[in-house]
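Encode chain A's predicted structure.
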Amino acid sequence: MPLKLNNQQTQDIMKHFTALIFFLFFVNLSLVKGQNLVKELTLRQAHKLIELNHPKLKNAAIYADISAKEIEKLNKANLPSIALKADGKIQSHSVKLDLPPGSNLPFTIDMPLYSAKTFLESQFTIYDGGVNKAQQTISKTNLISKESQLNVTKFQLNEQVNSLFLSINLLKEKSKLFNYSLKSLEQREKQITAAVQEGVVIPGELTKIQVKEIKLLAEQANVNHQIKALLAALSALLLTDLNSDTELILPTVDISNALNTSNRPEKQYLDAQKENINANKTLIDAARKPKIGAFAQSGYGYPNPLNFLDNNTSPYALAGIKFNWAVTDWKQSSLSKEILDLKQLELQNANDAIDFTLNVEEGRFKQDIERLKNQIMSDQKIAAMQNQILTYMEVQLDEGTITSAEYLTQVNAELLAQQTILIHQTELQKTIIEFYNNRGGFNQTIQSQQK
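Encoded structure for chain A:
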């Protein structure tokens, strides 16, 4: 016998079915999102993601295409030009020669007042003084200059990534330290709870421990919130899904390689600008050289364009060579080159300024690295002693010879000592990475695939 359902039962079943569909949808969505999350990310991978995803850095391919098309256009400029032309004119007077009676001349001249012709004309440059080649060189140096400018932008973006990496890792280590302190407090809480139940310790001592736990949990929650905020900023910058479980891996860098070399993109950009100026100087020299070209013309004209004795519509053809040389430009070329020399000097001064700044910063970085190394050694000794004192006080707390307030004071001191080590270690790592980056150690230039 078939099962009969009333309206209320049918509605309940549909509600449960709809709820199940939504539940399965969100579970599937969560699984897909989880699959897209990055489990670990190195600093160099992050730099590569910046290069691939940042809108401005995508212009590298566009710049390369523009340069390739410019060079293709210049190559085609060397090919002969072919044009179909036509012109006509009417004039108030024309050449007319009437022969006197009895003249023996076999012709008369009577040019019409109007004329017209249509023709094909071709021109070909035999020698342009090197102008076309210089223009191609300028296009190539413009490409290198634009790519170098993109590298400057990429360098600045990488600095942002470096800062986020270091800040996130520091906060993660701080969060781990809170876990260490909370675990210690949890053990003490169990012991004090048992002592309170036995009447050995007053309940107020237990309350102090619990209050400290709440404070540490609140501080840890604040740190975890900062981690999420910085990860959100890094995710947006890299266009990559990251969460608190993503491991950010910093490289081990050898700063000895960075001490003697400088690979800053700003210097490469200035060098590219100098090469572009040199190419423009070459173009100025080429423009002053003689030019030789050939031309040819063939068509129909009325009257005959080449024979003024022929007043009929006639075909015609002509060809020749032309020569052009500006004997003097009143030293305009020399002045243009002098202006370019001054611009090169300006670029050299900017390059020297970068070197000067790098040399000054090198001394500061070296001093900071040495100072932090010594500081960490002292921090580790202090932390070891604070931990030893905390161990003694745990025993004293268990024996009831000290109060929980005295014990919590030492917990704070030991936690602060561990955090100090962590802070200085992170500062050392940050200083080393900044120094390496400052000298251009992470600089991987953006280059087109154009050959």
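Residues 41-79+128-290+325-438 form a domain with the Outer membrane efflux proteins (OEP) fold (CATH 1.20.1600.10).
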